[in-house]
Amino acid sequence: SSSPPRRDFISVTLSPEEAVGAGGYNNSKAWRRRSCWRKWKQLSRLQRSVILFLFAFLAVCGVISYASMGEPWKSLTNKSLDDQRTEPEIPGLKLANPVVLPAPQKADANLGDYPELSPQKLPKLLHARRGPSNLQIKPPRRDVRLKTQHDTGRVVEEPVQADKEEKTEKSVISWRGAVIEPDQSTEPPSNKIKEPEKPSSVEAEDQKEPVPINERQLAVIEAFRHAWKGYKDFAWGHDELKPLSKSYSEWFGLGLTLIDALDTMWILGLKEEFEEARKWVAIDLVFDKNVDVNLFESTIRILGGLLSTYHLSGDSLFLEKAKDIGNRLMPAFKTPSKIPYSDVNIGRGTAHPPRWTSDSTVAEVTSIQLEFRELSRLTGDEKFQKAVDEVMKHVHTLSGKNDGLVPMFINTNSGQFTHLGVYTLGARADSYYEYLLKQWIQGGKKENELLEDYMRAIEGVKKHLLQRSQPKKLTFVGELAHGHFSAKMDHLVCFLPGTLALGAHNGLSADHMKLAEALIETCYQMYAQVETGLSPEIVHFNLHAQKGQKDVEIKPADRHNLLRPETVESLFYMYRFTGDKKYQDWGWEILQNFNKYTRVPTGGYTSINNVQNPSNPEPRDKMESFFLGETLKYMFLLFSDDIDLINLDKYVFNTEAHPLPIWVPA
Ligand code: DMJ
């Protein structure tokens, strides 16, 4: 135990003599060096090793921490340099000036009538990508800059927010390049984007530089939003808005206006509205209801609307709903003649004709084909197409036509035309002619019987129904009743110039285009010659010149306007195919008159009773679903200079303005 205690610590003792020395406190360098060295020598080997190890360890730590602090330090120093920099370092390279948006412009004088109308109020749209040029959604391009034309005609570039695009890539559903959040409550996200079961024949195109939305298109968007506001506030989920009584009316109880408007919102770029409506479709649109629906109306508005929205958005929800309603409409075809009944109970699966007759309307049974054929193509289930093709084949063989013109009724038992001898291109026959051409186009121009019937019918129109009015010599389409010509023309007939132009564009006779040009002038005059600048439901043309008389005569029972689309529809085709700006100008006049006489301040537009009384057009308190489904959509397309905004070589519009793909596009 006399051995010294083991030291596992270092003790350095400085004696007072050593510290101060003989000469007292000596702080000379030589003395300190000598003294340290002596101390070091006095240490045991273990003590020295420990000290050396500690020094080495500290040195290594120092090197590591220097390396990791280097980068932030560097950037910190650079940043502070940048912050201080006022002049570019490279001579001649100037830093960009901050973006200066143009000062708010005064709206067009015409726009000034409507206080809500101002591009500044539509900020979200400035970021909306322009119209779908393809059928399938694609992830947005990272570097896309959107151009917005202000009323100066100046184009302002607005950078798309990078974080927005980042989000898009992660999202389940894409809004033409923007985002729609997945609706968790309906189906798993993985089911949301699905290629059509039978992929569409239309190839996805490379996204082109977007065409700017112009002032007139903005006015259409504003009108749509105003109409939608009324619908949302007072009629959400119901068939039609009653904008004056701030309520709604039901026809089928299936949210008709909402469904009809879906693809319009898509085309106009109204992302939020679309998203909200989609949620309603996902959660609240239920077809399992004990309700009678009209086969034709529910096909063109609901089935057609769902199919086109499916194509534009790629969202399988709409295809699922389309299949559901398509299946529920099929009982209509269970008739002795296979000519469908007019009405179907979609909950019970039963069908029947109207109470007073066993006839169906010819236009109705022959204007459901585009939709059912497309449904077969998408589902691979041929029953839909078979049912409607059979109707067309049967009608093709029927007697009772007059040079291709068909009567207005057909019997569901016998399959024969009834009420023979009356021919019109208006109510009850109109879309028969339209669908002959459009089915031929949809199917890739191969179904010759359809083309034959169409060509024959147009010859029939020329031979029996065309006349010229006085004093302006307007070419119009009248009616024939048991050999007697009547100078009566429904506004509905104004689909014809557009259809004729579409046929000519698809290679049919150039004469058709000539006739289209003459007829669209007439349809425009049906607006221009009336006090409110809005067309009545029916006009009678003067065949004999009389002093002080216009071409257009209106009977008291016919002077209502239901916000119908046909003239605007034809203006759209005419502008697309000719590029003549007068068609846009005519459409612009019509839009302004709708705004002047049919707009309800609290939201929505209304049909009116008297187009001849500008001081009291007598609002009817109803906004038809086709105002959003057709009229405003065609307006928007008419004012666009982008032929890829529903390219007419790739899409064919159904009679409710819902675009469906052409199977073999031009
Ligand atoms: C719409 O339902 C369709 O355009 C139909 O073909 C005719 N009637 C209305 C619009 O006027």
Automatic annotation (TrEMBL):
Bias type Basic and acidic residues, positions: 140-170, 192-209
Stretches that traverse the bilayer: 49-69
Pfam families: Glyco_hydro_47
Major localization listed first in the record, in broad terms: endoplasmic reticulum
Top-level class of the enzyme under EC nomenclature: hydrolase
GO biological process, any: carbohydrate metabolic process
Disulfide bonds: C494-C523
Pathway as given in its UniProt record: Protein modification; protein glycosylation
Cofactor section: Ca(2+)
Entries under Gene3D superfamilies matching the protein: 1.50.10.10
The enzyme's E.C. designation: 3.2.1.-
Keyword Isomerase carried by entry: no
Presence of keyword Endoplasmic reticulum: yes
One cellular component (GO) term of this entry: endoplasmic reticulum membrane
Region (Disordered): 125-210
Family label: Belongs to the glycosyl hydrolase 47 family.
Role: Involved in glycoprotein quality control targeting of misfolded glycoproteins for degradation. It primarily trims a single alpha-1,2-linked mannose residue from Man(9)GlcNAc(2) to produce Man(8)GlcNAc(2), but at high enzyme concentrations, as found in the ER quality control compartment (ERQC), it further trims the carbohydrates to Man(5-6)GlcNAc(2).
Protein name: alpha-1,2-Mannosidase
Species annotation: Aramus guarauna (Limpkin)
Gene (UniProt): Man1b1
